């Protein structure tokens, strides 16, 4: 009788863990993908330039659309979205077929909450240059956030067919595979994203969740730990680590990790719910 009771307890714990994982996967599917999207705008040197030095460049040559595009990128990285928008507007005014500026401006529109303007700019960028991978990735992410998963998949697929080296295409396609339960494909895409951006924590979290969904607990745990080492300020990483501890019955360690996740993001539901479960009793 004791063995049966233990079996029932283990089974119940397994069902509970799978339900929690399903909840975490649902939340993960809503994430935006790798952080720092503005680091992927077309003119990469914008991230290393000082705003004042870029302004000096513009003062010397106020008719240079490239300069406005670079400074707009720098403004965007600094969260100064209105200034970024004005610079991208100016770049497009000076060069009406500046497809990179359209794509960059689309991201700013998205951050400002104007999804229709963002979509229009991505469409215009692609109309000008049908081989511009960044515009497909940006539009795909816009579609994914709107729940238009097939359109999103098509755009990420197109970027990948164009031989993009942007990890967001693989990461975001991996999230879509993951949401469909196609974890083998998701793991492959997350692994490619990791190879392209080995210092990004998000693909490790994504791959870890798919490993966990296929009961590969050791690889999942290794990925979550790596995500924490790369960036210890992401609540999802700590909550994912806690989920493995919880599955293993290590409630004290799980509660500690859930608590850190909740501290980093008090609104992150898996952290709050996990903390309540593991501290109960």
UniProtKB/TrEMBL annotation:
The entry lists its GO molecular-function terms as:
transferase activity
TPR repeats: from-to residues: 65-98, 133-166, 167-200, 201-234, 235-268
Q: Which GO terms describe its cellular component?
A: cell outer membrane
Q: InterPro entries recorded for this chain? A: TPR-like_helical_dom_sf, TPR_2, TPR_rpt, Ycf3
Signal sequence annotation = 1-28
Instruction: Tell me where the transmembrane regions lie.
Output: none
Q: Does the keyword Chloroplast apply?
A: no
Instruction: State the Gene3D superfamilies in the record.
Output: Tetratricopeptide repeat domain (1.25.40.10)
One Pfam annotation reads TPR_2
State the SUPFAM superfamilies in the record. Protein prenylyltransferase
Instruction: Report the domain of life of the source organism.
Output: Bacteria
**UniProt keywords, alphabetically:** Repeat, Signal, TPR repeat, Transferase
What Gene Ontology terms for biological process does this UniProt record contain?
receptor-mediated virion attachment to host cell
Q: Give yes or no: UniProt keyword GTP-binding.
A: no
> What name is this protein filed under?
GlcNAc transferase
């Amino acid at each position: 009788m004791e063995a049966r009771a233990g079996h029932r307890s283990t089974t119940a714990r397994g069902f509970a863990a799978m339900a929690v994982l399903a909840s975490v996967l649902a939340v993960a599917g809503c994430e935006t993908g790798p952080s720092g999207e503005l680091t992927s705008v077309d003119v990469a040197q914008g991230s290393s330039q000082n705003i004042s030095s870029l302004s000096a460049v513009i003062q010397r040559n106020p008719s240079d659309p490239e300069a406005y595009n670079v400074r707009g990128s720098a403004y965007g990285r600094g969260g100064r979205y209105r200034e970024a928008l004005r610079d991208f507007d100016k770049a497009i005014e000076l060069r009406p077929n500046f497809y990179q500026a359209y794509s960059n401006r689309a991201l700013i529109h998205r951050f400002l909450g104007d999804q229709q303007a963002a979509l229009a700019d991505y469409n215009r960028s692609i109309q000008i240059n049908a081989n511009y991978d960044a515009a497909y990735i940006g539009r795909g992410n816009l579609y994914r956030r709107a729940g238009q998963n097939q359109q999103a998949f098509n755009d990420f697929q197109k970027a990948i067919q164009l031989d993009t080296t942007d990890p967001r295409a693989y990461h975001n396609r991996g999230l879509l595979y993951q949401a469909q339960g196609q974890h083998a494909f998701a793991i492959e895409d997350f692994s490619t994203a990791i190879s392209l951006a080995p210092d990004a924590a998000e693909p490790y979290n994504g791959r870890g969740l798919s490993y966990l969904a296929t009961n590969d607990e050791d690889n999942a745990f290794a990925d979550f730990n790596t995500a924490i080492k790369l960036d210890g300020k992401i609540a999802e990483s700590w909550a994912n680590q806690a989920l493995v501890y919880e599955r293993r019955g290590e409630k004290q360690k799980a509660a500690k990790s859930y608590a850190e996740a909740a501290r980093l993001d008090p609104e992150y539901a898996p952290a709050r719910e996990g903390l309540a479960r593991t501290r109960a009793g």
